[in-house]
Amino acid sequence: EDHFTNGCEGADNSEIRFKLCQDLWHKIRADTEVLQDELNRKILDSLLDFTRKCSSTRQHSDWASQMRASEIPTAALVLGVNVPDHDMTFQSLSELLQQSVTPHVASVQAKECGALKHLMKRVLERLMDTVVTVDDEEEEETEQTSTQLHKSVHCSLSTLCDWYNAKTMKSKTGTPGKKRSSPVRDDPQQPPVVIIFKDLEAFNPKVLQDFILICSRYVERLPLMFIFGIATSPSTIQHMLPHSVSSLLCIELFQSLSCTQHLATVIDKLILTPQFPFKLNGKVMQVLMSIFLYHDFSVRNFIKGVQLALLEHFHSQPLSVLCCKKKEALLNVMQLSHHDLESIRHLLSFRRYVEKQEPQEQLNLFRDDTHLKEVCQKLIKDLRKYHKNYYPVLRCLHTLTSSLPRYPLGKQVRELHLICLEKNVWENEDYQTAMKLLKMLAKDELIASLQRCVEILQPVKSKKMKKALVELEELLAKFKQLDINSSWANITLAPRSHLSPPESQTLNEVCYYSSSATVRRHLNATPRTSIQAALSSPYYYLQNESLKTEDGTVSNAAPDICIAYKLHLECGRLINLYDWLEAYATVVSAAEGNNPDSDNVRKVEEVKHARFIQAVSELEFLGFIKSTKQKTDHVARLTWGGC
Amino acid sequence: MAALLQHAGYEEERLLRVAQQMPCREVQAGMLLSLMGQPQQYSYPSIFIYGHRASGKSHVMHVLLKELELPHATVSCVECVSVALLFEQVLLSFFGCDAASLLPRSPSLSDFVRIYRQQCSQSPAKQTRYIVMEKAELLRDTDANLLPALLRLQELVEDNVTIILLSEIVWDKFRPNTGCFEPLLLHFPDYSKGELQQILSQDRHPSYTAEFYSSYINILLGVFYSVCRDLRELRHLAALNFSKFCEPLAEGKVKETDTHKLWRNIEPHLKKAMQTVYLREVSSLQWEQMQQMEEKESGALRGLSAHTHVELPYYSKFLLIAAYLASYNPARTDKRFFLKVDRFNFTPKNLLNHLLGPKPFPLDRLLAIFYSVVDNRVAPTASIFSQISSLVTLQLLTQVSHDDQLDAPKYKCAVSMDFICAISRTVNFDIVKYLYDFL
């Protein structure tokens, strides 16, 4: 909170804003978590079924399943390449398993299991909740202390077997009555031991093979089960495991929802709804979308991006105090200070609004604070109404156009949303073609999509939408009577009043976060560019007047490393160190105002030499050059280009 | 056949039981027994048994030692991630857990020998003790002194103990170059077709006659014997397909003796099984489900390798394409492909580079190609670089240089031609035009 208040624009209402921001974020996070749980529900349920079925078939003793008993049931869970999102899925999976199927669940990650004994150790630790000793020199100390606390056990599956038997025996003697009373639950006496491999691809194949071989020796005594988390495709199993090993497994495939669908739902529920007062403008949306599509496919990162935008908005925009629920917003308007009202008067959208008013009204707006507050209340109400109407109409337009050939207005709602955010959608060329195509559509298709529009509009409560709904229904009736021509005007006109871009709305700055550059800078960092900028124009970061130069040149007074960098740009792939030093010495002595020919130069040379060596090694550290054996006294450049 | 197994010092009845449990392995078992001698006699210090997978090595040893009630310890070398585990298991099964707990942390071989001697002086062996080591080929990767020491453990501990090594590899591959005590070699040959038939017929279904099951096995072997001689695998297949085989019987269409009709019924089915279950494209559970809904013609179930489609972020696709080009094009041809000058005509080399497999390339070459194939300008952001490493964890690229090497890492592209073609089709990139082999 302190960080938020410090350096915040307009500090007087920062506390309210911080609270608003937090509330909103908590709500968004809670909503997305619910959403994600719902999305994962189907696949998780089928996985749970699978584990239950496996544990129950184990108890059957008919001929066929006895012959198959040596196989380890395995679920291959294909999750897609968005690895950052997987954690949450596995988290809820293991929680669900623990709740409903078995208390024995262990999940392992590749990076903690470099060797077989580490994998073994992790699995045992997680299943048994004790410290397992592995004869490992590096972990000596930690283990010495822990042995006193826990009963240490040796790291092998036979230990696990004994432990499991003890555990199940105990539960058998402990709850004999329960078993008879609840026969519905599938045999709680023999719950399976589930081991989840979170990232199968990253595991060392050898380790995995050995582990499976060992497990298959014990599968008769221990009801083991595996779950593989796969990011690419199921055929990796075949790449990783030879036939002799994969024949020990009984693999069943589970495919999760693709991440694009996942994102579409998240956007649908989070962005395209009037529920949250906080909005992103077109450019920010574009940045977040392109990070998703071009870089990582990660829904979690997308939500992180929204969070960043949210924080930035409340941090940098003093008027964001009005970005909240309707009642609170109206209240907050009344409490605005004079300073805040001044900043409202400076808002671009507000000035546009003022220009449209009568001269007398204009004067009032500029002079009278209380009048301004009233107007603001009205404007905020207008903005809310606009949002309420915008989204249903957007969806209607989408249903009409999404079935058109070649998708002139995009396949997904988010694409249409982006178009609408940018400018008046009806001025768009694609919109014109879409409308033309729409006119050529077959009658029954058109009626079907119009029917869907009606369904969308039905739950909306605002007055204008009610009117639109009635019109639409009339339209539909007319269509059914083949009276097409007269009603065209209506369809095409409907969006105009509601889909104008938010920039045209007064006071949009309150709700819309627009600094796409900030978001891009924070989320899509460019370390290389920053280093190069720092080296080639030190003024940019140091803000020292003496360093200010015309573009492309470096002043003599710049830090040593900048001079060395500048000089090395002029060289080819191999740089002669002595030439470099000479050039450097010349530049530096020129900066000191010495005559390069004087005797003085020789004495200072040593200091300069040292400075030069330091600069060069700094450049090496930053990865611009490296030493080479191709030629003596030369270093190799690692970057291309230059002057 | 029990005559082969007659041996002094063991009860007749037990030997008979042993013989029943291991059909077609009487010769080897008799050989082993004569090597082992009578229980109280000293035996040869080490025996090395080799033979293919599922040729009954472990089974024979297990049955012999168990039925004749000889003191023994069975250790699987896969399981022994450290020698400590091995020592512990041996001590545990000979002397109980008190002895095993005497082992210090990270014990050495001499610790083991010391404790063994100490224990066996307290309880000297009345009968030969046996240590059976399965998958002994892994012993080669452990400490160099372990294998030679185990081979003459009898001398070291001065006890009547015999080491039996089981392996799929011949002894010649074991012999350490410092030389060692030579164990006695014993080979378990593969089962012949007749033997397989005999063994498989033993685990018959309780509700059918033995002749019926053995005729089923005969048909099964007729189909699978040419591709698979692994007993375990065959047994698995037999179990999976048996219910299908019995189907016409249950419907009352044919009698048990009508082998020809049964064969006609099952043969296409087995052929299908060969392509799916045998290759583990379809798990056995799914196979059973498939059999049940055969009538509805379930086309929904596809094998594992059918799912090869992978969705990747846009730039990852281009990075992968660039990596593929870098791996399969010679570096000297880069200029011709990616400089915007008119192309030279050069002679195609008949898929030479594709036959040789992917070659390693440095990071900067990858990025240079990436920037020239991707159509719009891309800032060299951190996420581009992180995508490269995530491609490595997905095993689409492999890092050739060592992990610790930070400057100029080298990579290889690990995807197939089909895969990269599918990827480049999704981004409208004609990759064949850029491949040196296909010009």
From TrEMBL, chain A:
Domain Origin recognition complex subunit 3 N-terminal, residue spans: 7-322
CDD domains from the UniProt entry: Orc3 (cd20704)
Keyword terms of this UniProt record: DNA replication, DNA-binding, Nucleus, Phosphoprotein
Subcellular location: Nucleus
Record has Nucleus as a keyword: yes
One cellular-component annotation, GO: nuclear origin of replication recognition complex
Main location: nucleus
Domain Origin recognition complex subunit 3 insertion stretches: 334-487
Superkingdom to which the source organism belongs: Eukaryota
Gene Ontology biological process terms, A to Z: DNA replication initiation
GO molecular function (one): DNA replication origin binding
Ranges where the Origin recognition complex subunit 3 winged helix C-terminal domain occurs: 528-640
Record family assignment: Belongs to the ORC3 family.
Role according to the record: Component of the origin recognition complex (ORC) that binds origins of replication. DNA-binding is ATP-dependent. The specific DNA sequences that define origins of replication have not been identified yet. ORC is required to assemble the pre-replication complex necessary to initiate DNA replication. Binds histone H3 and H4 trimethylation marks H3K9me3, H3K27me3 and H4K20me3.
Self-association state and partner proteins as the record states: Component of ORC, a complex composed of at least 6 subunits: ORC1, ORC2, ORC3, ORC4, ORC5 and ORC6. ORC is regulated in a cell-cycle dependent manner. It is sequentially assembled at the exit from anaphase of mitosis and disassembled as cells enter S phase.
This protein's name: Origin recognition complex subunit 3
Organism in which the protein naturally occurs: Dicentrarchus labrax
From TrEMBL, chain B:
Location, primary (coarse class): nucleus
Pfam families recorded: AAA_16, ORC5_C, ORC5_lid
Residue ranges annotated for the ORC5 lid domain, each copy included: 213-280
Keywords of the record: ATP-binding, DNA replication, Nucleotide-binding, Nucleus
Cellular compartments annotated: Nucleus
Keyword Iron: no
One annotated Gene Ontology cellular component of this protein: nuclear origin of replication recognition complex
Domain of life of the source: Eukaryota
GO biological process: DNA replication initiation
One of the record's GO molecular function terms: DNA replication origin binding
Family annotation (InterPro entries): AAA_16, ORC5, ORC5_C, ORC5_lid, P-loop_NTPase
Domain Orc1-like AAA ATPase: 22-164
Domain Origin recognition complex subunit 5 C-terminal: 312-435
Family: Belongs to the ORC5 family.
Function: Component of the origin recognition complex (ORC) that binds origins of replication. DNA-binding is ATP-dependent. The specific DNA sequences that define origins of replication have not been identified yet. ORC is required to assemble the pre-replication complex necessary to initiate DNA replication.
Subunit comment: Component of ORC, a complex composed of at least 6 subunits: ORC1, ORC2, ORC3, ORC4, ORC5 and ORC6. ORC is regulated in a cell-cycle dependent manner. It is sequentially assembled at the exit from anaphase of mitosis and disassembled as cells enter S phase.
Name the UniProt record assigns to this protein: Origin recognition complex subunit 5
Phylogenetic placement of the source organism: Eukaryota, Metazoa, Chordata, Craniata, Vertebrata
